[in-house]
Design goal:
five-stranded antiparallel β-sheet
Length: about 100
């Protein structure tokens, strides 16, 4: 399962707060906005989400650690070629979420 680690120096509570405040914005990560995202908090430090787009579903988890936000995602067979693009989108969105002053 591919994984993206995004370093941060925030308290876990602040990372969770920012994630909760922006969870509904995950759909904006889908190019063209043609998709939907389902999400739920499994534990205080882990949000599971599924991105549905172009007839595919990508199951993902976001885990808050002390010094990093770790995003794991499971690409369906045949979509391995988009892995670098997905990793880039995740990194860009995660950096914006964690570095932005709120």
């Amino acid at each position: 399962m591919p994984s993206v680690r995004i370093a941060h120096d925030l308290p876990r509570t602040e990372v969770r707060r920012r994630m909760a405040a922006r969870a509904d914005d995950l759909v904006k990560l889908i190019p063209g906005g043609l998709g939907r995202v389902e999400h739920r908090w499994e534990t205080d430090d882990r949000m599971d989400f599924v991105i549905h787009a172009m007839g595919h579903s990508i199951a993902s988890t976001a885990t808050v650690e002390d010094a990093a936000l770790v995003i794991d995602f499971d690409l369906p067979a045949g979509l391995g070629f988009v892995r670098p693009m997905i990793e880039g989108i995740i990194r860009q969105a995660g950096d914006k979420l964690l570095l932005e002053k709120r």
